[in-house]
Amino acid sequence: MWRVRVGLLRGRSRGRRLAIGRVEHDLTQQQPHAVHTRFELGVQRMIDGWITAGRLEVSPADLQLAREFLERAGLKVEDAPDLRVRIVDREGEVREMSREDAVMAALRHLTRK
Q1: pTM greater than 0.85
Q2: For the chain, what is the total number of helices (H) and then of strands (E)?
């Protein structure tokens, strides 16, 4: 069972921001998710940075963490021209995308775990 306390903070320059005060998780009813990759540890820092900046910014280190996560999940990640990446899935389907889209793909894959 999850209980989350959520409130809105008013900032002078950025308007309203979501603030999560406390998250309670009953460990006797459901085991916590096991963390296996650096991406799983770093994703909260990335999201906090995006919220603070007001836009999605992906550093080369963030992309590397996402790349490692996607490769561990069985996808092949290759560099493509113009700061893009190419992701090849297990069936051989190829998708070329921006660095930001690659990090979001890793985030979507993480939520399916």
Answers
A1: no
A2: 3, 5
Closest CA to 100 of 84, 87, 86: 84
Count Cβ atoms below 10 Å from residue 65 Cβ, excluding itself.
21
Q: How far is CA 65 from each of CA 29, 46, 68, rounded to the nearest angstrom?
A: 31, 11, 5
pLDDT tens-digit profile of 29-72? Answer: 777 667 788 999 899 899 999 999 899 989 999 999 999 999 99
Domain count for the chain, please give it: 1
Structural domain range at position 71: 2-111
Return the C-alpha torsion angle 1, 104, 50, 20, nearest 10: -10
> What is the structure's pLDDT at 35?
75
